[in-house]
């Protein structure tokens, strides 16, 4: 995973994260969790969730205008993330 070097002017991207969860035996150590646990060719229950990446401008907050009196705003949270944090997240996801 790499940080976006130049964000698109409209801050619209199609990047997503795939988060997978599965059940492992009690007492399984982190280092014992291998990619094979998440293989769809096994009989394991695997739950998946795609998380859409949202770029947020820190310079100007985005204000969404209602359409037909209805707000289509989605709750977003801007969290500053360092490269070290991203590396740690990726290491955990790739175990």
UniProtKB/TrEMBL annotation:
Q: Which GO terms describe its biological process?
A: endoplasmic reticulum membrane organization; endoplasmic reticulum-plasma membrane tethering
One GO CC term on file: endoplasmic reticulum membrane
Q: Which InterPro entries does the annotation name?
A: Ig-like_fold (IPR013783), MSP_dom (IPR000535), PapD-like_sf (IPR008962), VAP (IPR016763)
Q: Where is the MSP domain?
A: 1-56
Coiled coil (UniProt feature): none
**Similarity comment: family membership:** Belongs to the VAMP-associated protein (VAP) (TC 9.B.17) family.
Sorted alphabetically, which PANTHER family does this protein's record hold? OS05G0373000 PROTEIN, VESICLE-ASSOCIATED MEMBRANE PROTEIN-ASSOCIATED PROTEIN
Name this protein carries in UniProt: MSP domain-containing protein
């Amino acid at each position: 995973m790499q940080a976006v070097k130049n964000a698109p002017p409209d801050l619209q991207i199609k990047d997503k994260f795939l988060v997978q969860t599965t059940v492992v035996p009690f007492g399984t150590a982190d280092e014992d969790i291998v990619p094979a646990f998440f293989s769809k060719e096994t009989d394991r229950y695997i739950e998946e969730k795609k998380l859409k990446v949202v770029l947020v401008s820190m310079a100007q907050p985005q204000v969404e205008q209602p359409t037909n009196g209805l707000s289509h705003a989605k709750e977003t949270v801007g969290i500053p993330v360092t490269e070290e944090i991203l590396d740690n997240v990726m290491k955990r996801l790739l175990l």
